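Dear Dr. H.,

I hope your travels went smoothly. While you were away I took the liberty of generating a structure for the chain from your last submission, since the lab meeting agenda had it listed for discussion. I wanted you to have the full record in hand beforehand rather than looking at slides cold. The sequence, exactly as received, is reproduced here:
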Amino acid sequence: MSSQAQFWNRIARKYAQDPIADQPGYEATLERVRGLLQPEHTVLEVGCGTGSTALRLAPRVHSYLATDLSREMVAIARERLALQPTPGLHFRVADAVAATAQALKPAPGQADAGPSFDRVLAFNLLHLLPDLDDSLARLLQALNSGGLFISKTACVGEMNPLIPRLAIPLARLLGKAPPVQVFKAPTLLAALERQNLRIEAVERHGTKGKDIRVFVLARKP
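The corresponding predicted structure, in token form, is as follows:
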């Protein structure tokens, strides 16, 4: 088990109880994404955490596969799904940077449609991946031609420099933070463009102070 998985397994229950820091900003993001979903769409969400976003968006589409590398996060998501049954929504433990064919093997009893999604979603995830370019290349194998990659990413390089230089390393030393990649929005956009994606929108939905979480729509040719 990776150190990332161990970290998220350990904090999963606390994470599930923590309030969303900027609820209006979160709702604005959900509303924006809803407008990009159609009833016939197939959706993959990577890094789904405890499933809150998946449960809100899945009723809009034909099928919605939500994955996370933490088995404890997925366990909570499945508990929530049991309380709020949603046709077409499935949660699965899968590493976002694993080879797509392996990560997206059908569950027992499910048909193997292959890695074929109209929308791939990654919220609060890309800054946590060990190699941005390699991870994007693997994720985008699952996206249909003409499909949208929709992400919202914390650009840690836009924070007060003391945070990535001192606060985050100290938190990691104490086991209170996972490894984090430090970059700004232009670096993220350049990485997406290196995958031949066409950037269609770059937005900030935050309502409290400086918003470092960049919402990006990028289309696969």
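Two observations you may find useful: Strands lie at 42-46, 63-68, 89-93, 117-123, 143-154, 198-203, 213-219. The chain has one domain: 3-219.

With kind regards,
E. W.
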